[in-house]
Amino acid sequence: MNESIKKVVVVGGGTAGWLSAALLKKVMGQSIELELVESEAIGTVGVGEATIPPIRMLNNVLGLNEAEFIRETKATIKLAIKFENWRVNGGGYLHTFGSPGRSYAFCHFHHFLNRARKELAETSTIWDYDLNYLSAMEGRFAKMDVKDPILDMPFAYHFDASLYAKFLRKIAEQSGATRTEGMIADVTQDPMTGFIKSVHLKDGKEIKGDLFIDCSGFRGLLIQQKLGAGYDDWSHWLPCDRAIAIPSNRFEKTLPYTRSIAHKAGWQWRIPLQHRNGNGHVYCSNYISDDEALHTLKNNLETEAVGEPNFIRFKTGRRRKQWHKNVIAVGLSSGFLEPLESTSIHLIQSAVVRLLHLFPHDGINESIVAEYNAQSKLEFEQIRDFIILHYHVNERDDSQFWRDVRNMEVPERLKHKIALFRQNGRLINEHNDLFLDASWLQVMQGQGVTPEDYHPMAKGVSEQNLLEMLKTIRKIKQDPVSKLPTHDEFLEKVCG
Ligand SMILES: Cc1cc2nc3c(=O)[nH]c(=O)nc-3n(C[C@H](O)[C@H](O)[C@H](O)COP(=O)(O)OP(=O)(O)OC[C@H]3O[C@@H](n4cnc5c(N)ncnc54)[C@H](O)[C@@H]3O)c2cc1C
């Protein structure tokens, strides 16, 4: 249908709705009219508080003042995720946003360390060479003004999801987006094309549009309930299907990382905010009951609960056509990957960026839709495989859940990545992979995949030089840490 896109309607006012509205309006300006419809009576999912570093790019494009953003959303800094009990009950490791050592052309740093560990009785690990890890463990943070990338310390944020949506709403409205409160009761389609023409509110108001962004959450009001775009179910790889969230009082000391603590049939998140902790238990209902899951969560809160539990059900997978006719699903309506690596808000961001790249200003056509759908399929699958890795490569033998995920068949692409790393530490990433080599390295090593060999280039240096080189890099990484303010000092300074 070759009609130019003048009016965009965003259905839903959760994180997906307001992020889409803010970014689209900020970038497209007066070239589009944008109206967002949301229903306070329905409300939002109310979770989604940990992010990954690309959010800083989004904040830059939106022109956010970082201090104001941190104050208004009660945000804290996130340098890493600490995985506890994932490989074995009692063990732990960090997946940081940093990278170990320094990069060398053609050969990763960890090959040098692997050689030293194998042949020279070196005992340090990749994390001893990672500024993010060292700072996270000391609870320290400052924004590094780095000339040398070796001292880069990538970070993201934890924030209060409802405050974040409000913050985005302010930006969207300042950029010219309008908001209509009301519950959508009906949807009209063009009888010839099946394109959505308008949505009708309970109070009788009709809202017309050329392009609809479906941010209505798990229900997928337009993309699924009206257009039946279909869903690829991935629960055979990621069987957790429920979550319970409860806020609790904050810790005395604000940690600059998320904690992910594996339990009998799932895992618990702990997200430190300025005013409270976000907690939740993601679990598989085939292995434990809701009562047991709630009991486990309450027993592991560490601080007093300050709200009622929020029970959420989901099915892991993705909407088969994320763009169908003149509807684009963004946020929970586009699919769901559990929040183990905090990727959902990023997927909202990248969906809107993709739409901006492919924006059909002079009409929707099949090649644009096909390209959008192919890119989003690949992105979802790549993240899915990284999440499966955490479950699959475990050595826990204390519950059926962990034995079953260890023994399941995993996607070929993931099998291949694990096999290459196991042979001699080779890391490969594909076009546009969100998680790059340092992420795969940390999670594979953390989960116990040990390379049997190392790259021959690591042999090209004498034993003495190799040990000297490792010592020097350790020192370069460790020296700045004690001079950094604590995370709480940083927040105090920003928040006044
Ligand atoms: C347990 C859990 C933990 C999570 N943790 C993280 C995390 O740490 N990091 C992360 O990045 N992501 C996380 N997520 C994902 C994150 O919560 C979502 O991606 C994000 O909140 C976006 O949700 P949404 O806006 O798509 O849906 P919702 O928040 O459900 O919003 C849906 C909107 O649609 C509106 N709506 C629905 N039907 C109608 C109607 N008929 N008429 C009018 N309006 C309607 C609602 O009023 C609401 O405004 C988590 C998700 C879950 C389930």
What labels would you give this structure?
binds flavin-adenine dinucleotide; six-stranded mixed sheet; 496 residues; FAD/NAD(P)-binding domain; globular; alpha+beta
**What CATH first level of the domain at 7-76 and 159-232 and 316-382 would be assigned?**
Alpha Beta
Q: Considering the protein shown, what is the CATH homologous superfamily of the domain at 7-76 and 159-232 and 316-382?
A: FAD/NAD(P)-binding domain
The overall pLDDT, averaged over residues, is 96
Strand content: 15-25%
Describe this structure in words.
With 496 residues, this protein is an alpha+beta fold. It has 14 helices and 21 strands. The chain has a seven-stranded mixed sheet with strand order 5-4-14-15-16-13-17. Strands 7-2-1-11-20-19 form a six-stranded mixed sheet. Strand 14 (257-263) and strand 15 form a beta hairpin. Helix 1 packs parallel to helix 6 and helix 1 packs parallel to helix 8. The longest helix is centred in the last third of the chain and has 27 residues, at 366-392. It is globular, with a radius of gyration of 23 Å. Bound molecules: flavin-adenine dinucleotide. The site of flavin-adenine dinucleotide has 38 residues, from helix 1, strand 2, strand 13 and helix 8.
Q: What's the gist of this structure?
A:
This protein is an alpha+beta fold. 34% of the residues lie in helices and 19% in strands. Helix 1 (15-28) runs parallel beside helix 6, helix 1 runs parallel beside helix 8 and helix 8 (344-357) runs antiparallel to helix 9.
